[in-house]
Amino acid sequence: MKENLMRELKRLNAFLGTGLTEEQLQQVAEHTSIGQMKNRPSVNPPANAYTERARKEGKQDFIRKVSSME
């Protein structure tokens, strides 16, 4: 999916038979991007939602930048 997200979304769209338009698929791609999800509280709760232990261990963010596995 990382290589060509739109191609994979189109394949998924065809497989599921959802009939989404190109514009709707573009919106799905944007809405599900890491940057968008990282800023969405429903996916990545604010730091005050975590326990004190998690804050001390630096694990406040659910979605973190991960180094590539090259």
What would the keywords be for this entry?
70 residues; mainly alpha; 4 helices
Description:
This protein has one domain (5-56). With 70 residues, it is mainly α. 46% of the residues lie in helices and 0% in strands. The model has no long low-confidence stretch (mean pLDDT 77). It has four helices and no strands. The chain is elongated, with a radius of gyration of 16 Å. This is Sulfotransferase family cytosolic 1B member 1. Residues 29-42 have a biased composition (Polar residues). It comes from Portunus trituberculatus. Residues 1-65 form the Sulfotransferase domain. One of its GO terms (molecular function) is sulfotransferase activity.
Topology, please?
Elements: H1 5-16, H2 22-31, H3 34-38, H4 52-56
What would a concise description of this structure say?
Helices cover 46% and strands 0% of the residues. The chain has 70 residues and is mostly helical. The model has no long low-confidence stretch (mean pLDDT 77).
Count of runs of 4 or more consecutive helical residues? 4
Structural class: mainly alpha
- Overall mean pLDDT stands at 77
Q: How much of the polypeptide forms β-strand, as a percent range? A: under 5%
